[in-house]
Every structure is written in structure tokens, then in C-alpha cells.
Amino acid sequence: MQAAPLLPDEANLAPEQRLLRVHELLLQHFGRPPLRQPLDPLTQLIASLLSTQIRSGQAQHVMRDLRRHYANWEDLRDAPIEEIVRVVMAIPSPEVMASRLKLVLLQITARYGSLTLEFLARYKTGKVREWLESFEGVGPQISAAVVNFSTLRRRALCVDADHLRVTQRLALTPRADAGVTEQRLMRIIPESWDAVRLEEHHELVKLHGQTLCMFAQPQCAICPLLRLCPFGNRRMRAEG
Ligand code: SF4
Fold first, then answer.
1. Ligand 1 centroid vs 18 CA: distance in angstroms?
2. Domains observed in the chain
3. How remote is the C-alpha of 54 from its chain's centroid?
């Protein structure tokens, strides 16, 4: 596919309009991405913790192994660390992940009295995220994934490493960490976008980051977003 030329009217669009255009162009390029079947919040938290260290496809495999091995999450919580390490061996630092999973499950039980996150449905979104982020290893990326992807289905944008890189290259918001970037993106995202639309946006940007706008050797020459992308245009000019 030939890249579209840089159009002055698009290069000068306001950030809100550029973000809408990015979404539209990615939809045209990739089609509507399949959205996940929402999990209960606790299962989504476990899945999101796994996803911090490996790609989501591999994380799904580890999740499947955990489900096969443990009849319920109480069994995972109560299992010896060495056993959990063996089940999550596909993760680069299985000891760290096994300890983190066990610790979070123990802490939720200690704080709430039982191992569930269903009660979060009664809280406002800000309080849910604050509660989740009070656990070690749970930052804005994971709390956004839990409130947006799970059955809680709230408005939040999961800014993972792929999303952050693409957003920064497109200069949609000033450079910042994932948490601040999410806040800034949410200010330019239409209020009419519901939780499902936000998940769709995340999936499109992530897919783009994994297939065209990779960390090394982004495919700017064939990128559908080139005409909106300062980084890509600088790179193309430098390459002549
Ligand atoms: S033009 Fe290049 S840097 Fe910009 S979004 Fe596309 S692949 Fe990424």
C-alpha cells in the first residue's frame, strides 16, 4: 500500500480532530477489531498483571494454564510460590510474577474479607482505580484495563507500551508517562465515546503499534497515519 502524502490541512488539525482521524484511518486500515468478552474484575486483574510482562497472546496462554491448574482463584492464592512459578514459567521472570499474583490475592482477601472484586461495581470509577492502584505492581495501565475491559465496563483508556509509543510519535499529547498520557488523551477524546468505543480505540492503536509502528523499524512508508505523524514525516525526510 502506498502512503498518503502529508496534507497541510491534516497536519494542522487540533489534537481532538487528529485523534478522531487516527481512529478513523486505523478502522479503515484494520477493520473493526474483535473485542474481548468481558471477564469479572478479579480475573481481568490477574490477566492484566500477566500482560505487563508478555504480549497479550502469550498472556492468554498463561491465563489458560492458570485456569487449568486452579479450580478457582482462592486455590491460586493459597498455592505455594514454587508451584505457581511452574505454572507461569512462560513469563520472563516467573518468580516475580508468582509472588506478585499471590501477594495481590492475599492483600485483596485481607482488605475485603474475601477474594472478590465484585464489590467495586458499587464504587465510582475514580475510587475503583484508586483502590486498585493501592496494590503493589498495579498502576494506571492495569487499573484502566480492569475498569474498561471487565464487566465493570467503565470509561478508561488502557495506555500500554504500544499505545504510549504510538501516541508520542503522533504527538497527540506532550510526552509523559502512561498515567498522565491517559489523562491527557481522555481530555481530547469525545465524551460520547463509551467504554466499548474506548476499548476499540485501545485495540486499534495497540494493533498498529504491534504490526506497523513497532519500537524498532516502524513501517512509516506504508503507514496509513503518515500524513498525521510528525515523527514519521521527519523520518521519511531524513531517509530522502
Ligand atoms: S508514520 Fe511511522 S512513526 Fe508515525 S505512526 Fe506510522 S509507523 Fe508510527
1. 14
2. 8-35+158-238 (1.10.1670.10), 41-149 (1.10.340.30)
3. 12
Residues with CB under 6 A from ligand 1: 166, 169-170, 212-213, 218-220, 223, 225-226, 229, 231-232
For the record, the C-alpha cell of 62 comes out as 498463561
Question: What is the C-alpha to C-alpha distance for residues 7 and 197, in angstroms, rounded to an integer?
Answer: 27
Q: Which of 210, 231, 235 to mutate to test the pocket of ligand 1 (most atoms within 8 A of CB)?
A: 231
In 90-203, at which residue ranges do the beta strands (DSSP E only) sit? none
CA nearest ligand 1 atom 3, residue: 232
Cα dihedral angle (188, 221, 33, 194), rounded to 10 degrees? 0
pTM of the model: 0.91
Q: Which pLDDT tens digit goes with each residue over 72-96?
A: 999 999 999 999 999 999 999 999 9
